[in-house]
Amino acid sequence: MPEGDTVFLTCRRLDEALAGTELVRGELRHPRLAEVPLRGRTVREVRPAGKHLLIRFTDGRTLHSHLGMDGAWHLYPPGGRWRRAAHRARAVLEVPGRTAVGFDLRLLRWVRTADEDELIGHLGPDLLSPEWGPEAAAEAVRRLTADPAREIGAALLDQSVLAGVGNIYRTEVCFLLRRSPHVPVAEVDAERAVRLCRDLLLRNALRADRSTTGDLRRDARYWVYGRRTCLRCGGPVHRDAEADRVTYHCPRCQPGP
User: In the structure, what pLDDT confidence band is assigned to residue 124 with cuts at 50, 70 and 90?
Assistant: First the structure.
């Protein structure tokens, strides 16, 4: 599932392409939304909320989407060949000179902008929000430590605790905390965990090639995520299957159960 930085960059590109422009074509290929009249509406802005995308229109409506495991928004020039099959497109928004296509979107909803909170109000503080400050950081720490016995890896993935962290960042943050993802929250520095999550997301928010190590070489971008050996110590990386995710950690660098 895409991480918060991927959604942030996607929204930035969509905003640059669509904001302030009237749609000359608009299609929502969804049984409940197929009759929504989009042509002629003007996009006001495109904003992320954790892993959610909000395309807001000047008439007070919002097109909400979530990428899920396989979703993506692509931008094409007029007549450009799509990189995915047309039957996988769920939304097509065209302005003069650019076409935005949403493929394989897990969620697609059409709501009043004033009612967005019904869709995203459950989210914890957004780590990439421009309004982030001491209050948001304190609230994130409060939510993270609300259940001290919960595994830190599970808590970091909970979008009602922190909005934007996916499997890659929870894996790498646990490594930088030098603790197994299976230790309880009570055994980690929660303030540092929140700070690391935000710092890593910010570092990668405006680039397509993600790295948590500072090294952009393909075999050195991550400390343990997706690796067989730890980038720091060279020891074997332990892999745990967890539902639809795999947890990675280095038993040598990350003590814990």
Answer: very high
Calpha distance 23→47 (Å, rounded): 18
51 noted as active-site residue: yes
191 is catalytic: no
Q: Which of 88, 106, 239, 245 is catalytic?
A: 245
- Alpha helices (runs of H) in the chain, residue ranges in sequence order: 4-18, 117-120, 134-144, 152-157, 167-176, 190-204
pTM score, whole prediction: 0.92
The model's pLDDT over 160-211, given as tens digits with 9 standing for 90+, comes to 999 999 999 999 999 999 999 999 999 999 999 999 999 999 999 998 899 9
Q: Which of 51, 61, 109, 221 is catalytic?
A: 51
130 included as an active-site residue: no
Side chain identity at residue 68, one-letter code: G
To the query of whether residue 2 is one of the catalytic residues in this protein, the response is: yes
